[in-house]
Specification:
Layout (H helix, E strand, L loop, with lengths): L2 H14 L24 E8 L2 H5 L1 E7 L2 E8 H13 L3 E6 L8 E11 L5 E12 L4 E14 L2 H21 L2 H8 L7 H11 L7
Parallel strand pairs: 1-4, 1-5
Antiparallel strand pairs: 2-3, 5-6, 6-7
Length: 207
């Protein structure tokens, strides 16, 4: 039996036996406190995700030289994790829902890697944040590598949450957000909002 095949059997046997690393769900991830601030910020946040982002499936490395597309929705996993963590820091958080008249627009980008050879998850993530009329507040990114084997079919959103914790902590502690909070999150101007939202492109119905 080839070494790669033997390693694959060992890893998969560990997963089946329940020995895989259990990451906490996004709702259980604690954010760092922000000195002098009682979270959540009294602001409305819309996560923007295009239809192609939401429909993106996870691609895994099935062998040393091959990849395969799964049916696991990678795009929806990162959006769900982002919403769960941002909801700890802001009063109202939605996905692709302009009816809340958002103060902030957040575009999330995520990339997950999982290989059958070791079953470890490697995740990259970043948040691009703007006011609703298009003023940039910054980019906040991070990487997370699981210390042990994980199950991508059930742990993907949890892996993203571990990555996003640092990014969201960075946003909440940023001077740019503090300055905006100091204004009381004033309602952005109508024409500016309309122009910026048009620049995002089609906003799908999220469900």
């Amino acid at each position: 039996m080839a070494l790669a095949d033997w390693s694959k059997m060992v890893v998969m046997a560990s997963l089946v036996a329940g020995c895989a690393l259990r990451l906490p769900p996004p709702e259980a991830v604690e954010l760092a406190p922000v000195p002098g601030v009682a979270l959540p910020y009294k602001a409305r946040v819309m996560i923007f995700a295009g239809q192609s982002d939401l429909d993106r499936n996870l691609v895994i490395q099935s062998s040393r030289y091959q990849t395969e597309e799964t049916k696991v929705k990678d795009g929806r996993a990162v959006v769900a994790a982002t919403r769960a963590l941002l909801a700890k820091g802001f009063q109202q958080v939605t996905v692709d829902d302009l009816s809340i008249r958002p103060h902030l627009i957040v575009k999330v980008m995520g990339k997950a890697q999982w290989a059958r050879l070791d079953a470890k998850m490697k995740v990259g993530c970043s948040l691009d944040v703007w006011t609703a009329d298009g003023m940039p507040l910054g980019n906040f990114g991070n990487r997370y590598d699981s210390p042990g084997a994980t199950d991508y079919t059930s742990e993907l959103d949890a892996g993203y949450a571990q990555c996003l914790k640092v990014a969201v902590d960075g946003l909440l502690a940023s001077p740019a957000l503090a300055r905006l909070a100091g204004t009381g999150f004033k309602e952005p101007s109508g024409p500016g909002v309309e122009a910026y939202l048009r620049s995002l492109g089609p906003i799908p119905a999220y469900h």
